[in-house]
Amino acid sequence: MDDDQEQIVNAAACYIIVCSEFLKNYSFENEDEVRTPKKRRYWMNTFYKSRKRYNATNMLHDLNVDPSRKFENFCSMSSEDFEHILNKIGPYISKNDTNMRECIPIKERLAVTLRFLASDDSFKSLSYLFKFSPQTVSRCVNDVCKALILELKDEIKLPQNSEQWLKISEEFNDKWNFPHCLGAIDGKHIVIQCPNKSGTEYYNYKETFSIVLMALVDANYNFIFIDVGCQGRISDSGVYRNTDLWKQFENEQLMLPADEPLPAKTNMLPYVFVVDSAFALNKHMMKPYSGVYEKGNEKRVFNYRLSRARRVVENAFGILSSVFRVFRRPMLLNPEKVTNITMACALLHNFLRKSKTSSSNYCPQGTIDSEKDGEIIPGSWHQNHNNEASFLPIRRMPRRSPSDAKEVRELFTEYFMTNGAVPWQNNF
To answer: Residue 395 CA to chain centroid, in angstroms?
Structure first.
């Protein structure tokens, strides 16, 4: 070892000795405070411990035996449907007890999720009612929505052959006097909080942040196709072109019926979907004429007949946001969770619409728009609906229409003025 290395070693040894002596003689000013460990946090908040005396399971039992139908109001479904859904999703949402604490029962997990969807309460507000933490409420909602999507996925499905499409067309003709109609398409922006590090990806034309819900509805206000989750910044025509519905249509996989003439007509006419002015006109998608026309004008009559058929999708959205009030305010969740919540609500909408025990409570008489002698009577969902809260309409944009699509629209217009006329159409 040379002299330089020896000096470095000696200097290091001296530094270690000095430091050890300093620490040995140093006295902490608040020695007791520093050395006393922090108080252990409660494993469970004292308030939540009252679950042992009275919990949500007891509450649901009391609501169910009450003769005033409080259970249906609380969960937005009958107790029979509640048990049916519980049996289907129970294996997916059940947890095991541990040595530290008992798990939340599956009945309470489903109940808190349904209450969250049916009200505009926050997770914190629901935690006081159900007596478990907001974080647990959040996990329950996410888990139950995923399970509902998995188990109720068959509630929303496209027709698999031309015969099923023709059945929908017959219902539109019988109920809404619009032949060759296969469904009504529309979309809504669901307002959310700005996702982290997303920039303007979800920033929409209303200067809020949103994801887009695009849906196809049959003549009975049921969803037969739904696409949700597209970023709000994408143009509405772009949203539709990104859906599986458009891709299947472009690839001729929808199995649509072959062109046929309208009753008492000879010209071959395709089967169509009805849309509003936000969409592009083509021979399979009928939109209204732009402009304002006087009463009795053939274009005004066509617009009335089309809007009459297209009203089913507006009513479907109206019922959805009227019953599931979670859509009445911006959702303070990330886009993935909002997508799951929206899909679960749409599936529950179809399930409850078809249910024998819940349909009358879910959609009572007077909820949906009706007509009397040609006069439109707005449904009760209009009174409870706030368009500026969370459900925003998609943007109207002018577009050029192809000549063959214009020809199809003119043939429908001619039919509505002749063989397909209804007595009250000239009143609008």
So the answer is: 19
- Which string of DSSP letters, residue by residue, matches 260-316? EEPTT--SEE--EEE--TTS--BTTEE-PPSS---TT-HHHHHHHHHHHHHHHHHHH
**Where does residue 363 rank: exposed (0-12), middle (13-18), buried (19+ CB within 10 A)?**
buried
**Separation of alpha carbons 63 and 73, rounded Å:** 9
Residue 289 phi/psi, 5-degree rounding, is -70, 145
pLDDT tens for each residue of 299-339? 999 999 999 999 999 999 999 999 999 998 889 899 999 99
Alpha-carbon dihedral angle through residues 273, 296, 396, 158, given to the nearest 10 degrees: -10
d(C-alpha 193, C-alpha 335), whole Å: 9
Question: Among 300, 282, 298, 301, which residue's Cα sits nearest to residue 290?
Answer: 300
How do residues 341-353 score in pLDDT, each as one tens digit?
999 999 999 999 9
> Which pTM does this prediction carry?
0.85
